[in-house]
Design brief:
4-stranded antiparallel sheet, globular, alpha+beta
Length: 116
Protein backbone atom coordinates (compact mmCIF):
# COMPACT_ATOMS: atom_id res chain seq x y z
CA UNK A 1 0.00 0.00 0.00
CA UNK A 2 1.09 3.64 -0.32
CA UNK A 3 3.16 5.45 -2.86
CA UNK A 4 2.57 8.55 -4.89
CA UNK A 5 0.61 6.80 -7.67
CA UNK A 6 -1.76 4.85 -5.45
CA UNK A 7 -5.45 5.18 -6.23
CA UNK A 8 -7.25 5.98 -2.99
CA UNK A 9 -10.77 4.81 -2.36
CA UNK A 10 -13.75 6.98 -1.57
CA UNK A 11 -13.47 5.55 1.98
CA UNK A 12 -10.45 7.80 2.37
CA UNK A 13 -12.60 10.95 2.21
CA UNK A 14 -14.99 12.51 4.68
CA UNK A 15 -15.37 14.68 7.76
CA UNK A 16 -13.39 14.36 11.00
CA UNK A 17 -15.18 15.62 14.10
CA UNK A 18 -13.35 17.38 16.95
CA UNK A 19 -13.83 14.24 19.07
CA UNK A 20 -11.91 12.16 16.49
CA UNK A 21 -14.90 10.38 14.92
CA UNK A 22 -14.50 9.98 11.16
CA UNK A 23 -17.57 10.16 8.94
CA UNK A 24 -16.91 8.61 5.55
CA UNK A 25 -18.47 10.70 2.80
CA UNK A 26 -18.51 9.82 -0.90
CA UNK A 27 -16.16 11.90 -3.02
CA UNK A 28 -17.76 15.21 -4.00
CA UNK A 29 -20.59 14.98 -1.44
CA UNK A 30 -18.97 16.82 1.48
CA UNK A 31 -21.15 19.95 1.28
CA UNK A 32 -24.45 18.07 1.07
CA UNK A 33 -23.35 15.74 3.88
CA UNK A 34 -22.43 18.75 6.06
CA UNK A 35 -25.83 20.35 5.47
CA UNK A 36 -27.67 17.12 6.26
CA UNK A 37 -25.56 16.45 9.38
CA UNK A 38 -26.05 19.97 10.74
CA UNK A 39 -29.81 19.74 10.29
CA UNK A 40 -30.10 16.19 11.69
CA UNK A 41 -28.08 16.92 14.83
CA UNK A 42 -29.94 20.09 15.80
CA UNK A 43 -26.92 22.32 15.27
CA UNK A 44 -28.81 24.23 12.58
CA UNK A 45 -31.15 25.78 15.16
CA UNK A 46 -28.12 27.12 17.06
CA UNK A 47 -26.57 28.85 14.04
CA UNK A 48 -26.60 32.57 13.49
CA UNK A 49 -28.52 33.94 10.53
CA UNK A 50 -25.19 34.64 8.82
CA UNK A 51 -24.14 31.00 9.24
CA UNK A 52 -27.49 29.75 7.93
CA UNK A 53 -27.17 31.69 4.68
CA UNK A 54 -23.52 30.82 4.17
CA UNK A 55 -22.99 31.09 0.42
CA UNK A 56 -20.32 28.37 0.31
CA UNK A 57 -22.45 25.76 2.02
CA UNK A 58 -22.58 24.51 5.57
CA UNK A 59 -19.21 22.76 5.29
CA UNK A 60 -17.64 26.07 6.31
CA UNK A 61 -19.86 26.06 9.38
CA UNK A 62 -18.56 22.62 10.38
CA UNK A 63 -15.00 23.89 10.00
CA UNK A 64 -15.86 26.92 12.14
CA UNK A 65 -16.86 24.40 14.82
CA UNK A 66 -13.52 22.57 14.60
CA UNK A 67 -14.28 19.90 12.01
CA UNK A 68 -11.70 18.82 9.43
CA UNK A 69 -12.46 17.89 5.84
CA UNK A 70 -10.40 15.05 4.40
CA UNK A 71 -10.56 15.41 0.65
CA UNK A 72 -8.60 15.81 -2.54
CA UNK A 73 -10.16 17.19 -5.71
CA UNK A 74 -7.77 15.05 -7.77
CA UNK A 75 -8.80 11.77 -6.10
CA UNK A 76 -5.34 11.26 -4.57
CA UNK A 77 -4.29 11.07 -0.97
CA UNK A 78 -6.73 13.03 1.18
CA UNK A 79 -5.40 16.17 2.81
CA UNK A 80 -6.85 17.67 5.99
CA UNK A 81 -8.56 21.02 5.41
CA UNK A 82 -9.45 23.12 8.44
CA UNK A 83 -9.83 26.73 9.42
CA UNK A 84 -6.34 28.21 9.55
CA UNK A 85 -6.80 29.55 13.07
CA UNK A 86 -8.01 26.19 14.40
CA UNK A 87 -5.61 23.57 15.74
CA UNK A 88 -6.11 19.82 15.58
CA UNK A 89 -7.65 18.42 18.74
CA UNK A 90 -5.69 15.58 20.32
CA UNK A 91 -8.34 13.14 19.09
CA UNK A 92 -8.09 14.50 15.53
CA UNK A 93 -4.28 14.40 15.57
CA UNK A 94 -4.32 10.80 16.82
CA UNK A 95 -6.81 9.78 14.12
CA UNK A 96 -4.85 11.54 11.36
CA UNK A 97 -1.55 10.03 12.48
CA UNK A 98 -3.02 6.51 12.29
CA UNK A 99 -4.84 7.37 9.04
CA UNK A 100 -1.58 8.28 7.28
CA UNK A 101 0.47 5.45 8.85
CA UNK A 102 -2.13 2.93 7.57
CA UNK A 103 -1.62 4.40 4.08
CA UNK A 104 2.19 4.20 4.37
CA UNK A 105 2.44 7.99 4.31
CA UNK A 106 4.87 8.45 7.20
CA UNK A 107 5.88 12.02 6.32
CA UNK A 108 2.23 13.12 6.37
CA UNK A 109 1.68 11.27 9.66
CA UNK A 110 4.62 13.00 11.30
CA UNK A 111 3.62 16.41 9.94
CA UNK A 112 0.35 16.23 11.90
CA UNK A 113 2.24 16.69 15.15
CA UNK A 114 4.39 19.49 13.73
CA UNK A 115 1.57 21.87 12.83
CA UNK A 116 2.07 25.53 13.60
Amino acid sequence: MGGKNMAYSTGDYGWLAPDGRFYEVPWGEHQSWATKHIKETGLYEKLTLKERICADGLGDVLMNHGWILLHNPRHGLAKPTKKEEKRFTKAQADFLYDYYIERNEHDMANSIFNED
